[in-house]
Amino acid sequence: MIIKPVGPTQQAGTIQQAGRRVLRHRRLALLLAVTAVLGAACSSAKAQPEAAGSSTPASSTVPASATPSGTSAASSATAASTPASTTPVPSQPASSTPARPPATAAPAGGCATAALTVVALRGSGAAGHQYAFLQFTNKSAKSCSLTGFPGVQLLRAGALLGKPASRAAKPVTTVQLAPGHSATARLVDDSTCNADKSDSVQIYPPNRTEKVVVPLSVRGCALTIDPVVPS
Predict the structure, then answer these.
(1) Phi, psi (degrees; rounded to nearest 5) at 134
(2) 86, 117, 123, 210: which sits with the fewest CB atoms below 10 Å from its CB?
(3) DSSP letter string over 51-92?
(4) Is 120 found in the same domain as 226?
(5) Are residues 151 and 43 located together in one domain of the fold?
(6) Pair 120, 211 in one domain
(7) 184 in a domain, yes or no?
(8) CATH number at residue 129
(9) Structural domains of the chain, count
(10) Measured between alpha carbons, how far is 167 from 104 in angstroms, rounded to an integer?
(11) 150: closest CA among 94, 225, 87?
């Protein structure tokens, strides 16, 4: 094999070609480096808005007052889980005490029970009815007045007999009683029932709560009382 010697001209061309290849490689490396830098910059710029958009504003923090304290929450849970008391209230037995007249205020100058003499007078009867007249006489030294209905309940041997008298549907007036003067209320007994007879009657003067017991014998049937009128 014969090796031809390289001339100066060929040797120079070979060197130039090698230099151009090195230059191209350097430009390519530089271009790649610039491209990588630009790509990194773009990625950083894109990430910053996203981070800014995903940040939680300070105003979204839940205030401390919106969260109940442990004690309050425990109290609420205890109250919710505790059933309402179901302890039955014992019913009151029916009282045998007669109903007193309504506790309406007595008119000014009303007669006190202690200032009255009270009697029950039997009247003449009619078919199926017995009558009595309750008389209230002012025994004091001063004038006084009576207004409305007495309270009435029959008695037998000291025990209640029948039911208290019902009020008649009649107008009410005020009766002025000078000393020694009287007012009267009529008592009607529906004597068609087969009840025992009373031996006395307890009477509450109008608008008073103190009773007076006086003799009276009528059937222990349904009673109706009229308002007081002048005697």
Answers:
(1) -95, 120
(2) 86
(3) HHHHSPPGGGSPPGGGSPPHHHHHHHHHHHHSPPP-PPPPPP
(4) yes
(5) no
(6) yes
(7) yes
(8) 2.60.40
(9) 2
(10) 15
(11) 225
Looking at the structure, tell me whether residues 38 and 138 fall in a common domain. no
* Same domain as 226, residue 121: yes
Q: What is the largest CA-CA distance in the chain?
A: 179
Q: Are 99 and 115 in contact (CB under 8 A)?
A: no
Cα distances (Å, whole numbers) of residue 198 to 12, 29, 156, 168, 190: 161, 135, 5, 21, 13
Q: Show the tokens assigned to 174.
A: 């005020």
DSSP state of 114: G
pLDDT digits (tens, 9 = 90+) for 15-47: 667 667 767 777 777 777 767 767 666 555 555
Q: Which of 179, 183, 189 is nearest to 207 (CA)?
A: 183
* Residue 196 binned pLDDT confidence (cut-offs 50, 70, 90): very high
Q: Residue 42: inside a domain, yes or no?
A: yes
Residue 138 included in any domain: yes
Which domain, by its residues, includes 39? 13-48
End-to-end CA distance of the chain: 175
Q: Is the residue at 65 inside a domain?
A: no
CA distances from 56 to 44, 52, 216 (A): 20, 9, 96
Indicate if 120 and 221 belong to the same structural domain.
yes
CA proximity to 178, closest of 144, 228, 134, 229: 144
Residue 48 has pLDDT above 70, yes or no: no
